[in-house]
Amino acid sequence: MNKAEVLKEIIEQRRSIFPKDYTDAEISQEIIDEILHSATLAPNHKRTKPWRFKIFKGEEKAKLASEMQAIYKATQPEQLFLEKKYNDIGFKINKANVIVSIVVNFSGMVPEWEEIAATSMAVQNMYLSCTANNVGCYWSSPKIVDYLKESLTIEENQKCLGLFYMGEV
Ligand SMILES: Cc1cc2nc3c(=O)[nH]c(=O)nc-3n(C[C@H](O)[C@H](O)[C@H](O)COP(=O)(O)O)c2cc1C
């Protein structure tokens, strides 16, 4: 296959794959590095490189699950609280091998939408790199991430746009 055919196949094959379909296998550090590196190659206006990614694995990921569950419980009116939803938050995070928080940093040098667009393109690069490496992944954007405090340090000029789940399939 020539380069154009390879690219077309990867773009066509890319799908969101959810934690229930991930195996327990570890994604190798080499592949994680490759996926993150691809993100940093996304186009960005005035070279602001507005994406901020933090990788959660093992113990840190377990803490993220607990914090997300606690936020859900604290922000949900009691009569709307669902035990299933609460458990599902934990299940999804625990089932993923690696989670990357997607944060945009607003530099003030270009309009905010341009930095969100550049960060989204970085995420698309991760999606495509996952596809090429047979890693399942998806972008999750629940409201809960607005309240993350212990797992993530969000500066005044930053916003968390969600979590990128990854797992071997
Ligand atoms: C900005 C963004 C946010 C998303 N947030 C969620 C989400 O919160 N929950 C979810 O199930 N999927 C989410 N997705 C994944 C979409 O549901 C998915 O891309 C769509 O269903 C199309 O499927 P595909 O990715 O396999 O083409 C998000 C995708 C994008 C681009």
From TrEMBL:
<protein>
    <submittedName>
        <fullName>Nitroreductase</fullName>
    </submittedName>
</protein>
<dbReference type="InterPro" id="IPR000415">
    <property type="entry name" value="Nitroreductase-like"/>
</dbReference>
<comment type="similarity">
    <text>Belongs to the nitroreductase family.</text>
</comment>
<dbReference type="InterPro" id="IPR029479">
    <property type="entry name" value="Nitroreductase"/>
</dbReference>
<keyword id="KW-0288">FMN</keyword>
<feature type="domain" description="Nitroreductase">
    <location>
        <begin position="11"/>
        <end position="167"/>
    </location>
</feature>
<dbReference type="GO" id="GO:0016491">
    <property type="term" value="F:oxidoreductase activity"/>
</dbReference>
<dbReference type="InterPro" id="IPR052530">
    <property type="entry name" value="NAD(P)H_nitroreductase"/>
</dbReference>
<keyword id="KW-0560">Oxidoreductase</keyword>
<keyword id="KW-0521">NADP</keyword>
<dbReference type="InterPro" id="IPR026021">
    <property type="entry name" value="YdjA-like"/>
</dbReference>
<dbReference type="Pfam" id="PF00881">
    <property type="entry name" value="Nitroreductase"/>
</dbReference>
<keyword id="KW-0285">Flavoprotein</keyword>
<keyword id="KW-0520">NAD</keyword>
